[in-house]
Amino acid sequence: MRTKIFISYSHSDKLFVDWLTRKLNESNINTWYDSNEIKLGDSIKQRIKEGLEASSSIIVVFSKNSSKSEWVRHEFNSALLHNSITKGIRIIILKIDDVVIPTDIAGYLYIDLSKDREKGLEYLIKEIKLAPVATYSKLDWKKLNYKDFENLIYELLTKEGFAISRTPKTRDGGFDFVATIPNKFESNDKILIETKFYNNQKISIDILRQLYSLSLSEKADKVFLVTNSELTNSSRDFLSHSATNIVVWEEQKLLNKLYTSPDILEKYFSIKPLKEPRQVKLIDKEFSNIQQLIQELDNCSEGEKGWKQYEDICVKILTQLFVPPLGTPKLQSRRQSGIDIRDAIFPNRSKEENWRFIREDYDAKYIVVEFNNYSEKGSDIDKQTILQISDYLKKTIGRFGIICSRKLPNNSGIEKRKDTFIEQNKLVLFVSNDHLKEMLRRKYKKLDPSDVIIDLIDDFNLSF
Known about the structure:
This protein has helices spanning 14-26, 34-37, 44-53, 70-75, 78-85, 117-128, 146-159, 205-217, 233-241, 251-258, 262-269, 285-299, 307-322, 353-362, 383-392, 411-424, 433-444, 450-463; strands spanning 4-8, 31-32, 55-62, 90-95, 109-112, 164-166, 177-182, 188-196, 222-227, 246-249, 330-336, 339-347, 366-372, 400-405, 427-431. It is α/β, with parallel strands linked by helices. The protein has 3 domains: 4-128, Toll/interleukin-1 receptor homology (TIR) domain (Rossmann fold, 3-Layer(aba) Sandwich), CATH 3.40.50.10140; 141-258, Trna Endonuclease, Chain: A, domain 1 (3-Layer(aba) Sandwich); 285-463, Restriction Endonuclease, CATH 3.40.91. The relative contact order is 0.08.
């Protein structure tokens, strides 16, 4: 039986964690805290792995310090947390200052202790003492159709305490349910609730714009969207800046809710909680491999010194991500500014949706990838860089290329990319180190990493 609470934190926040651990212990909550658990001579990574796998909950102390901490990045990783939640381990994020919560973890429960520490602690203790989350096999959404999904959400929201009514069958108003909830002004807020059930599609900006317009025409205070899918990156930006009245439960948030509702899971998926295994394996070989690739990418030297190493790492990552469905890359060398540069050319004969779309829209029989390891103070990704990869994109290759770089393009590079698209209908994407990491984590979570490439295409098209 897993009984401990694992605490992940930056050592810059040690004073806070000392206070937190003391308060939890006073409430008879057993914590795994590395200052107490790791002894001289222990393997730190192994002890942390054992601590994670022996815990019933993971608390992540999230702050400006922890967002920069290498150890917290190792322990607290969206792939690791996804793996944890499916194996019955509760995830609780503690926000202790004005740090911005990253979008990839926004779906997890987080408690704000930055303004009222004692009140936040009281809520945390209450959450920890809730019945432990059951362990389930992975949900198969293909067992449902859109109507099943709508009914499932109706039952789940009713169980969550929403007083909701369905849209009349004689009229589809563009939303599935409507709810009214009391506000602080002693009146009621009108909430429109929409469900979106997809097998492969993500939530696009167009969908959010439609919901935003609907909120205006229906004079609703908020729109609540529940989906088994997820937002595109551009959709997240739209929510943050243009549609703050829309609240979204993506798949991860929805799973968190469903795993505490065994009756609903049994009804719609015909599954029951698994008997708790003797040992929960969170950090498997695939996860360790992904962490190693990310670490190699982070540790690679900038500029000419680490150029070849950067190329090698990127080729290794892209091969891990996309071969198959793409073919094994062919490497071609050339000389530029005194540096031997290699480009990777991936054959694209894939029938998978995203790569087929790229092949058909951009005649991309091959995916050309160029690697640039420019340092922050070195050369820029400018119009010359775009010209070089554009010269590669001929009729026999296709009109689609990727530049992998730790550095963002300058204005001349951005403008030249637009000109290249207008004049030659060739598209060049900028893939950063963060994009590479995001795709690795998606791959581990059994999600299509090429969705990130499609998001970048959408971003370009919508901002053009």
